[in-house]
Design goal:
Structural class of chain B: alpha+beta
Order of helices and strands of chain A: HHHHHHHHHH
Radius of gyration of chain B: 22 Å
Number of strands of chain A: 0
Largest sheet of chain A: none
Strand order of the largest sheet of chain B: 7-8-9-3-10-11
Distance between the termini of chain B: 28 Å
Shape of chain B: globular
Strand content of chain B: 35-45%
Radius of gyration of chain A: 20 Å
Oligomer: heterodimer
Strand content of chain A: under 5%
Order of helices and strands of chain B: EEEHEEEEHHHEHEHEEHHEEEEEEEEHEE
Chain lengths: 228, 365
């Protein structure tokens, strides 16, 4: 049904999206927990900066990554020389770009769900002897779980569709950075590739439907768990 | 276990200034109208509010001293807190809620203590239930158990009954009375309800406009004319600590005795010798200079006038002493003149009605 190259693109897409979401998730939770319920000068600026990837053209994000992390760019060269980490023209670079672009989806959903937790419950936990970390692990995380799942699923779906930042930063290398959207684009560029493009598009639509259904199911189960 | 509190905090236009000490187990009511600062006072004791100035000592440990910069965070104070809205953890079962503080106590209570609190509060059937599925009264009982099981040094109760309807209040009241009578730890009970204070408290601290203005035993405070003038509330009447001394089943009456005489009330389902608090409203007391022999009222006591105070434009409040019990009669000023009332004068007090906890007529706790 699918050609080996198409299966490769599908698996690559899933892997890049999963890595991107899982790596960005702890950062999103930590920043959301720090920024929720807290007021300090400059909060609006930090908040705006964290939402920037959502509103910037993805090509700009890809370009910025390229001039920072390209093999001859200062940071990229240092990472390659000292830690052996290479982002440019590698699937890890695609995951990094997707993770940055979709970070605001996770951050926003998690922060909203943390802010929705009644602060009185935290006070009750304090009087029962629970310290900061204890309250974070046993109250904040479980009560924010619906938001965490929702944010992660939305970000995963958005990762699957990422195109501009990936093609700008890590190019379109089959088996390395050619994800589904890039494969569709390549198929359309080659003569007689319309059928392949259509098939891959159908695949994308099916993936999206599965994702949405899973998210809905998980959300319902978790709402029961969290007692909402 | 004792507690002493001296705090001052300026909320910008509203100044909180509280100073009091409690050195006995039992219930001390913080009584005052809504907005008088009662909750802020208990929040400083729990450590949820850090006052600008002050000193709080709980069981010999200084948990707050602004001069030397001591501030023990709430999670290290071992102060139990029962909030008005229960604040159970919605994602946990009743049992997990109950064990939350128990697990975190520096010296956790024995497992047998868990069973004891569960049965004291009638929670056995609720343990596996999800806390969000409970009724309002059940939630408050779980919150009470959760606070007790954290082995606190002092228990703060912030209007735990205010959000409940009359039936739910009646459901919780006996548990609070049991807790009071066990007298294991001092409890500060925030309330603006005179009924609750009269039924539950051993002593009362009056809070007015952010200040603690008076403190004393409930039986004296509620019959004190100065206190009713302070709070601006109508005269309290009286709370009398009695014991059930006899039942006359044929007449459908029970006799309650107290230091100062006996009171006759409709038949109670309580054992002889059991303690029972009764309230007598100032409006329900009539005065007579001579002993009224032919009268329908059952309760006529010989008392002594101790204080007289004019109340409003037409009334006078008369404080009476009968043995150790104090109560108040509210009569018209014209009557007071006609009777020629003076402090020290003996007088017959006729009680039109004696208020008994309605549960005493039906079930034994």
């Amino acid at each position: 049904m699918l050609s080996p190259a198409e299966i490769e693109a599908l698996l690559l897409s899933l892997r890049i999206s999963a890595v991107a979401v899982l790596c960005a998730l702890p950062v999103a939770i930590a920043l959301a927990a720090l920024l929720a319920h807290r007021r300090f000068p400059g909060k609006a600026i930090i908040d705006g900066a964290l939402h920037l990837p959502m509103v910037l053209p993805p090509v700009v994000v890809g370009y910025l990554l390229l001039i920072m992390l390209g093999t001859r760019a200062p940071v990229g060269a240092w990472l390659l020389e000292h830690l052996g980490i290479r982002f440019a023209f590698s699937w890890t670079g695609a995951a990094l770009a997707s993770g940055i672009i979709t970070f605001p989806f996770q951050f926003r959903a998690i922060r909203l769900s943390i802010e929705a937790i009644d602060s009185g419950i935290g006070d009750a936990a304090k009087t029962l002897g629970a310290g900061v970390f204890d309250r974070f692990v046993n109250l904040t995380l479980p009560l924010a779980l619906p938001g965490i799942i929702a944010g992660a699923v939305t970000a995963f779906a958005a990762c699957l569709g990422e195109f501009g930042a990936i093609i700008t930063f890590v190019s379109n290398i089959p088996g390395e950075t050619r994800t589904l959207p890039l494969a569709i684009y390549s198929a359309l560029q080659s003569p007689g590739g319309e059928v392949e493009a259509a098939r891959l598009s159908m695949l994308s639509i099916a993936l999206a439907l599965i994702g949405v259904t899973l998210a809905e199911f998980a959300d319902r189960r978790i709402r029961v768990f969290a007692g909402r | 276990m004792s507690i002493s509190v001296r705090i001052r905090h300026d909320f910008g236009g509203f100044e909180l200034a509280a100073k009091f000490a409690v050195d006995k187990p039992g219930i001390t009511a913080l009584f005052g109208p809504s907005g008088s600062g009662k909750t802020s006072i208990v929040n400083t004791i729990a450590g949820l509010l850090r006052p600008q100035e002050g000193n709080i000592v709980i069981g010999g440990e200084t948990v707050l001293d602004t001069q030397s910069g001591i501030f023990v965070p709430p999670q290290q104070r071992r102060v139990g807190y029962v909030f008005q809205d229960a604040r159970l953890f919605p994602h946990m079962s009743v049992e997990h809620n109950l064990r939350f503080g128990w697990r975190r106590a520096p010296i956790p209570a024995e497992e047998s203590e868990f069973g004891r609190v569960v049965s004291l509060l009638g929670l056995d059937a609720l343990l596996t239930r999800r806390s969000v599925k409970l009724s309002g009264g059940e939630k408050n009982r779980v919150a009470l158990g959760r606070a007790l099981l954290a082995t606190p040094r002092i228990l703060l109760l912030d209007e735990p009954l205010a959000a409940l309807d009359a039936a739910r209040k009646a459901e919780i009241m006996p548990y609070l009375e049991k807790l009071r009578d066990e007298a294991k730890l001092p409890m500060l009970y925030v309330s603006h309800s005179l009924d609750e204070v009269a039924q539950l408290a051993d002593s009362v601290i009056i809070v007015k406009d952010g200040q603690t203005v008076a403190q004393g035993p409930v039986f004296e405070m509620l019959a004190d004319l100065d206190i009713s003038a302070l709070t601006g509330a109508p005269s309290f009447g009286a709370v009398i600590d009695t014991r059930v001394s006899a039942h006359h089943d044929a007449d459908g009456l029970s006799v309650l005795s107290f230091d100062g005489g006996e009171l006759i009330v409709p038949l109670l389902r309580r054992d002889i010798g059991q303690r029972l608090r009764v309230r007598i409203r100032a409006e329900d007391v009539m005065l007579a200079a001579e002993e009224p022999r032919t009268i329908s009222a059952n309760n006529v006591l010989l008392a002594t006038v101790t204080t007289l105070r004019e109340s409003g434009s037409t009334h006078a409040d008369v404080q009476l002493q009968c043995g150790k019990a104090r109560f108040v009669a509210r009569i018209t000023r014209a009557s007071a003149h006609r009777l020629g009332l003076n402090p020290g004068m003996p007088i017959f007090a006729i009680m039109k009605s004696v208020i008994v906890d309605p549960q005493a007529h039906t079930v034994a706790p």
